[in-house]
Amino acid sequence: MAELARTPGPLRQMFQLIDMAPEPHDSVVAEALATWHERRGTELTPQARDLRGDANAAVRAGSFLASALAGRTDFALSQVGEEAARCLGLSPAEHRLSAATQLRIAARLRRLFTLVLDYGEPVLGRFGEVHGHAGPCEMEVLAAPIILEGGDTGVFCALSSGGGH
After folding, report:
1. What CATH number does residue 77 fall under?
2. What is the pTM of this model?
3. pLDDT value at position 93?
4. 48 in Cβ contact with 65 (< 8 Å)
5. Which are the contacts of 103, defined by CB distance < 8 A and separation ≥ 6?
6. Out of the domains of life, which is the source (predicted)?
7. Helix, strand, or coil here: 164?
């Protein structure tokens, strides 16, 4: 008898939703997933170089690429969009997930990125978060595998804090 994969306990506590068959509600995240699928074509994973350049401005603003550093305890970030940097609390000079001032978001992303690297499929996460004085909002995050320049597997991440419904 087959059994459905169970979401690990720590992930269930950190997220309101973890979906390994993503169906985003947010229009920016949905467009990011559509772009990922289009660039994937018949391949297992799309090339990073093909992904962000073809994405629309809203997807580029709310997304970035991540590559695991030793032990997957931190991730190097590249091509970080303006909205993504704001959500993470990153300054323009910072290029590591550990430099994010939004610590809870960074911790959730580390878990999602590790899940994507382990399973090789896109994952959607949804959770409530607070940004400064803006009050509570729901965040939707897509993390999907990509092939980086050197041939390593990385992560394409697109996120939205609820404005793109």
Report:
1. 3.30.450.20
2. 0.88
3. 84
4. yes
5. none
6. Bacteria
7. coil
Query: Is 9 within a domain?
Result: no
Does residue 113 sit within a domain?
Answer: yes
User: Parallel, antiparallel, or unpaired: how do β-strands 17-19 and 123-130 relate?
Assistant: antiparallel
- Tally of structural domains, the chain: 1
Report percent pLDDT > 90 for the chain.
Answer: 57
Let me know the angle formed at the C-alpha of 42 by 37 and 40, rounded to the nearest 5 degrees: 30
Residue 10 in any domain: the answer is no
Segments forming the whole domain that contains residue 63 = 16-160
Q: Predicted confidence band at 96 (pLDDT cuts at 50, 70, 90)?
A: very high
Beta bridge partners of 68: 75
List pLDDT tens digits, range 3-59: 445 566 677 778 888 988 899 999 999 999 999 999 998 888 999 988 766 678 899
Cα dist from 25 to 3, 17, 87, 164, whole Å: 27, 12, 18, 9
Give the list of residues 6+ apart from residue 148 with CB closer than 8 angstroms, or none: 48, 65, 67, 154
Reported in sequence order, the residue ranges of 25-81 that DSSP labels E, i.e. its strands, are 63-68, 75-78
